[in-house]
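Key result, reporting period 2: structure in, sequence out.
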């Protein structure tokens, strides 16, 4: 074997452990899901080996699944907008802090040390009829009796914002940290106000981080099922809840596989659009 051939093979040899892990942990399970989506489920819950489009026809033509998917995208979009509105000022404050930046970052990632399920369930103790907020309002005389604040779309969005806001802040923070602060000083020295320097210099340069955080919040929000299961009502189910219901409750793995692939394709298309116009580098920085 020539030296050139050995040099050409060397990168693939070094990458082979990582590529093997990705193939076994990602692509092989995904292949099983694709195969399952064409099988059938019997009345007893047993899977029937077949090649049928029945699950895909049901998933694509049933208005029930379409409406749940649209509602899922709507909730994810609202959550993303709220996270962006709340996360950008927080990220800007942390990025411009001088002495206490490490402490602020520690406080930002502190919620990740607690289970996501526990954090979500904590809202029941806050918003429940016997929770802290109702008790406070009744104690202050603002309410004559407790009101039902849980199990609606608003509490689902609230729980998702609570979960996803740190991801938005981290992505915007990374983007702001990469901006040379002397650019704002140069703008002000040329006659711009601080607000003009921010809107015309800092904000445009930080938009890739805002876009990366928005993509991450949208994808994670659209794919969650814990938050609507705990904080939502019967009419607030999201698409991942349908997958959970089909596989765990109905034991209908073929239909659940088709539904999960349907959601994967929709979210994958959004990621592909983002990568086409902005690239994945900024998102990798935020995750790192």
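The corresponding designed sequence is given below.
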């Amino acid at each position: 074997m020539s030296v050139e051939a050995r040099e050409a093979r060397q990168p693939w040899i070094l990458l082979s452990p990582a590529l093997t892990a990705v193939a076994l942990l990602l692509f092989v399970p995904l292949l099983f899901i694709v195969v399952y989506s064409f099988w059938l489920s019997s009345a007893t819950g047993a899977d029937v080996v077949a090649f049928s489009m029945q699950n895909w026809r049901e998933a694509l033509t049933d208005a029930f699944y379409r409406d749940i998917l649209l509602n899922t995208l709507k909730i994810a979009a609202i959550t993303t907008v709220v996270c962006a509105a709340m996360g950008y000022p927080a990220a800007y404050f942390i990025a411009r802090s001088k002495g206490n930046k490490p402490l602020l970052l520690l406080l930002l990632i502190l919620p990740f040390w607690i289970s996501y399920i526990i954090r979500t369930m904590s809202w029941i103790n806050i918003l429940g009829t016997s929770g802290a907020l109702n008790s406070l309002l009744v104690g202050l005389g603002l309410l004559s009796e407790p009101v039902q604040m849980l199990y609606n779309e608003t509490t689902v969005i609230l729980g998702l914002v609570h979960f996803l806001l740190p991801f938005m802040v981290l992505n915007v923070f990374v983007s702001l940290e990469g901006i040379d602060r002397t650019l704002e000083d140069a703008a002000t020295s040329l006659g711009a106000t601080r607000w003009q320097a921010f809107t015309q210099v800092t904000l445009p340069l930080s938009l890739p981080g805002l876009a990366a955080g928005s993509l991450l919040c949208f994808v994670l929000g659209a794919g969650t099922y814990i938050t609507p299961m705990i904080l939502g009502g019967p009419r607030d189910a999201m698409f991942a809840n349908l997958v959970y219901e089909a596989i765990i409750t109905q034991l209908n793995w073929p239909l659940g596989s088709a539904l999960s692939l349907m959601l994967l394709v929709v979210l994958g298309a959004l990621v592909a659009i983002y990568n086409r116009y902005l690239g994945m580098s900024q998102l990798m920085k935020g995750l790192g």
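The longest strand covers residues 40-41. The chain has a mean pLDDT of 87. This case is discussed further under Risks and Mitigation.
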